[in-house]
Amino acid sequence: MLLKLTLLSPLTFTVRATPTAFVRNGTLQGVSLTGFAQEAFLGVRYAQAPVGDLRLRQSLALNSTFDGVVKATEYSPWCPGFGTTDAGQPQDEDCLALNIIRPVGVVPGSNVPTAVWIYGGGWSHGGSADIRQNQSWVVQRSVAMDKPIVGLI
Question: What is the pTM of this model?
Answer without folding.
Answer: 0.81
